[in-house]
Backbone:
């Protein structure tokens, strides 16, 4: 079965997690689609669709939201899985996940994942660094990628 992993990555952390996903998936017929490069992919040709992004200024990337809005009827008739990369470790991350994906798609999804995240200060501009320093306790690069969550997501998705 043909699978698409569709994502957006601002500083490369989500892309890193997509690569982790890809190597864990048993299905070898996988297309990885970066919405930065391919803004409007034809998702109708895929049986399985994994969609993910990261939180910036409290929201998932707009291209993810637009892709879902444009293709909601197709998505609700496919095997779908959703993931989010964010640095929160409490109920705030669940709130961000719920705000990132429509309820009907979350309920339809065969797997939902919260993969942790990273702050990569070297890839941030001055304003981004200032915001991160203000809203978090971090002032340098930190990684909190949750590989166990990625493994559990893959296991659920492949059932």
Residues:
């Amino acid at each position: 079965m043909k699978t698409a992993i569709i994502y957006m990555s601002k500083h490369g952390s989500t892309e890193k997690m997509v690569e982790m996903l890809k190597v864990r998936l048993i299905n070898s017929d996988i297309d990885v689609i970066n919405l930065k490069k391919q803004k409007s992919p034809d998702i109708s040709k895929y049986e399985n669709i994994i969609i993910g992004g990261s939180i910036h200024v409290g929201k998932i990337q707009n291209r993810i939201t637009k892709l879902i809005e444009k293709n909601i009827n197709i998505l609700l008739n496919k095997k779908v899985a959703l993931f989010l990369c964010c640095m929160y470790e409490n109920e705030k991350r669940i709130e961000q996940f719920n705000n990132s994906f429509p309820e009907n798609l979350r309920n339809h999804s065969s797997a939902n994942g919260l993969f942790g995240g990273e702050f990569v200060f070297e890839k941030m501009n001055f304003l981004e660094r200032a915001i991160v320093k203000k809203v978090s306790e971090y002032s340098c690069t930190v990684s909190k990628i949750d590989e166990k969550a990625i493994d559990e997501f893959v296991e659920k998705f492949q059932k």
Q: What stands out?
A: Residues 14 and 57 are 16 Å apart (CA to CA).
